[in-house]
UniProtKB/TrEMBL annotation:
Entry keyword set: Pyridoxal phosphate
InterPro entries tied to this protein: PyrdxlP-dep_Trfase, PyrdxlP-dep_Trfase_major, PyrdxlP-dep_Trfase_small
Cofactor needs: pyridoxal 5'-phosphate
The protein's name: Uncharacterized protein
Origin: domain of life: Bacteria
Species, as recorded: Gluconacetobacter tumulicola
GO MF annotations, alphabetized: alanine-glyoxylate transaminase activity; L-serine-pyruvate transaminase activity
Length: 75
């Protein structure tokens, strides 16, 4: 990460920070916990927009499953 700011004399100042790479730990507390690598990959994937055809297909499938769960024909 690079951070730029103006110094007191008006000249620019640049700080360069290295990559954050914490060691692997087994988290067992009530807060954040370890997640499966598949979840991490999914979280880092490109996002779909709400009007993307793939998102529309996924939402239609989800709604169909909800209709089965709640035993309804509502649309």
């Amino acid at each position: 990460m690079v951070r730029c700011r103006a110094g007191a004399d008006g000249r620019g100042e640049i700080e360069v920070f290295g990559q954050i790479d914490p060691p692997h730990r087994l988290l067992m507390g009530p807060g954040p916990v370890n997640v499966h690598p598949r979840v991490l990959r999914a979280m880092s994937a490109d996002m779909l927009g709400q009007f993307d055809p793939e998102m529309t297909r996924t939402m239609n499938e989800t709604m169909a499953l909800y209709r089965r769960v709640f035993m309804t024909e509502n649309r």
